Fold:
Amino acid sequence: MQAQDKNDTANLPKLGRVLNKIDSYNGVRYIFIFLITACGVLFLIDFFIEKHGYFTVENLYGFYGFYGFVMFSGIIFSVKILRTIIKRPENYYGTKAIDQEVYPKDELEKVDHGS
Amino acid sequence: MVHSLTTPTAFWFFYSVILLLALPSGKLRSSFLLMVPILAGIHLWNLPLGNLVQVKLFNFDLELMRVDKLSRIFGLIFCLAAFLGNLYAAHLRDTVQQVAALLYAGAAIGAVFAGDLITLFIYWEGTALASVFLIWARRTVASYHTGMRYLIIQIGSGVILLVGVALFFNETGSIRFELMTLTSLATWLIFLSFGIKCAFPLLHNWVQDSYPAATVTGTVILSAFTTKLAVYALARGFAGTEILIYIGAAMTLFPIFFAEIENDLRRVLAYSTNNQLGFMVVGIGIGTELSMNGAVSHAVAHILFKSLLFMSVGAVLFRTGTCKASELGGVYRTMPRTAIFCLIGAASISAFPLFSGFVTKSLILDAAAKGHYYIIWAILLFASAGVLSHSGIKIPYFTFFSHDSGLRPKEAPLHMQAAMGITAFLCIFIGCFPSTLYSLLPYPVEYQAYTTSHVVNQLQLLFFALLAFALLMRSGIHPPEIKAINLDSDWIYRRFLPSLIVKVKNLIDGFIFRIHRLIPLKLYSALRLIHILLGREGALARVLPVGSMVLWMVILLTITLVVSFIGF
Structure:
């Protein structure tokens, strides 16, 4: 179902065209810059707000940011190891599992503008 | 003997099945399916609190309509979920699914208002029986087998509940469904039965197995009721039971890792359900007013944002035929509205300020902190970062953005957009005006979700986690989406136990073969004769069809009747 007119935006709905335009203007880069700025600002704000957490650790500057960053990275690194242990091919459970089954067509309304 | 002040809300759904079948399939039927939950919801909204319907059956007083603040909010959200599910499924012309959806919603609502354990049991099994048809409605070999596995586990939960209830009645002489303590086998069995439906760790796999196997619309409806009914049952029966705190914490933790590497996006959402249920279970385990409010409100918010996520992924499946992350990507171009609805669902489940998850989950986290559960609090915070990773980022990113898969599917049908739009609106509404939801909770709420430090803390957690994601993606460390499955606890009953049975059978066969060789020939031929006559295929042991058995019974009874008639 590879699109023949993949880069043709004329067929896209209005909202899709706008989003596509943002994407083509290096949107990902701007989002990344926005993220870094937002993180910086949020870290700095921490010095100016009154904290009244239940635990002392909560009152450390940037605790939540640090926790979020480290934990998220931790999850990603550990799933890489987990995957090597529990990964199996899609036909592992045979035909009695839906893993490699094609969804019945008559229940769908497949419409693809690109094909 | 019936003492009734109103019609039980569940009956609205059951009666409507008869009407539904009388209506011609088409738009009229779809509109009728929308009207039922709305009318039932309005009726419920206007009901006074109290025990409104009592039925005396044998020596038991059954209470079919115990309306209090706890059951009412679950009843209302179930009506709303049924409405949204039916709206999403308005294109369906499949009577099986329409009837199943009505019966399933009705049974779940009936269970919520059950004031006694027998009524609870009946509805408990009702949800199992009705819901399996949403899986079987896919009408494939795999969905049939998955449905059977689902049904065995669900019915099993009901059977355990029944045994528990019988023992409980034997011990206490009461069948009232009220707060229990884990001091006897009876209450442990009831607890286990609730635990199966609530997908406790190692009992959880039916969720991941069955939800992705249901139909596009079936999964949306499935996701709303069974597990949340179990949350209600735990809240009613086991609030403040300490073990729930640790079970809940485990539930929030382990699905994060499985969800992160799962390729089937509906299964990712099933894992995510597990993780969110964990928050609710912790809240119930803590058992304070604040934490109970947190658990209940999070159940309400979860029904909405999880439905929204299932709807958006379902819409992509509806248009492309797949919901696997490895096959999708870049779909936002042609399905921009669905993409935005999905992002709203993702923001809600990740608990971004102004979205529903923020104002409900924080009640539970706060209750954990207030109760000095230091480690539990840290685990819940970790799980919050985990939610962002699989539901907040993975679902929208790999479905709608990421690399361009080249797929250019048409935008979701209008009724699906309407269902997603309303759900998305509700997610934002609850996030912006939490007092509306708070006012319906079982206990009075004196909680300010929007304090500066709380908002900043949460934003810090989420934005730094997002930054980690962006850095890991750019550096290529983030694991790619690949066509594969991952082992989970279902491996025990899908691979290990069957292979064990085969091994044992071979062992026994070999043993019998050796014994055969030791038996003298004459004795052996005698044994053969017995086998021919009485063995599996033997003339004397042949299984006759039930019909002929019934016929013989009728003939015998007729003869008896005639003989006795002549005799007198």
Summary: The radius of gyration of chain A is 23 Å. Strands of chain A lie at 87-88. The first strand of chain A starts at residue 87 and ends at 88.
